[in-house]
Design brief:
By secondary structure, the chain is mainly alpha-helical. The protein has a domain of 140 residues: Tetracycline Repressor, domain 2. The chain has ten helices and no strands.
Length: 213
């Protein structure tokens, strides 16, 4: 005999969460501009006008999806800043956490990375500011590695950070949850390939970022 689900287990999500989930799915599948308020209402089993009792319009949902996604990345990554680990180990863990956020939130990640360009100027700047913050996070990891001698002294910090971000951000375009590889396996594979070219040779002199001893 199986246990019956508790009322808490079967309780529907709050309407706001339902709207957020449907918007994430439709924006990721159809694109922001190709999704209408009528489409959203239809998927939710609501009248078009009833939707406005919960949100002011589509952009409010887009801003909310983008904001939530940025906070998920922040929570996953920024605790590593002060971790007592060599830079190459931090980088490996950061890549795993980054890909984990994408894999666990494929629809909202797709919207975040692909549809944010449709935001109004104020919200658009918020995303570009966040991207700068994440860019600095990865640049700091590379700089740490150069200073401690775990990464090559001749690395271009900016280009190296761009390479890492390109690898982890674009997993939303091809990764499929439940496929052959877990997020950890993807991150390990990426890290192995990248670090093979980034690591300093044994016995290399420690230098400051920029290549000077």
């Amino acid at each position: 005999m199986t246990d019956s689900p508790s009322p808490k287990d079967t309780a529907p999500k709050p309407r706001r969460e339902q709207i957020h989930d449907v918007a994430s799915r439709l924006f990721s599948e159809r694109g922001y501009h190709a999704t209408s308020m009528r489409d959203l209402a239809g998927q939710l089993g609501m009248q078009g006008g009833s939707l406005y009792a919960h949100i002011s319009g589509k952009e409010e949902l887009l801003i909310e999806i983008v904001s939530r996604a940025s906070k998920q990345f922040d929570t996953a990554l920024f605790l590593l800043r002060d971790a007592d680990l060599p830079a190459d180990q931090k980088l490996r863990e950061a890549m795993h956490r980054h890909i984990r956020v994408v894999a666990d939130n494929m629809e909202s990640a797709t919207v975040f990375f692909h549809e944010w360009k449709h935001l109004s100027p104020g919200a658009y700047r918020h995303v570009t500011d966040w991207r700068d913050t994440i860019d600095v996070f990865y640049r700091d990891l590379v700089t740490q590695g150069i200073r401690e001698g775990t990464l090559r002294a001749d690395l271009d910090v900016k280009m190296t950070a761009n390479l890492i971000l390109s690898a982890v951000n674009w997993t939303y375009t091809w990764y499929r949850p439940g496929g052959e590889l877990t997020p950890r396996q993807v991150a390990e594979s990426f890290a192995d390939m990248l670090l093979a070219g980034l690591r300093a040779s044994p016995g290399a002199a420690h230098t400051t970022a920029g290549g000077r001893p």
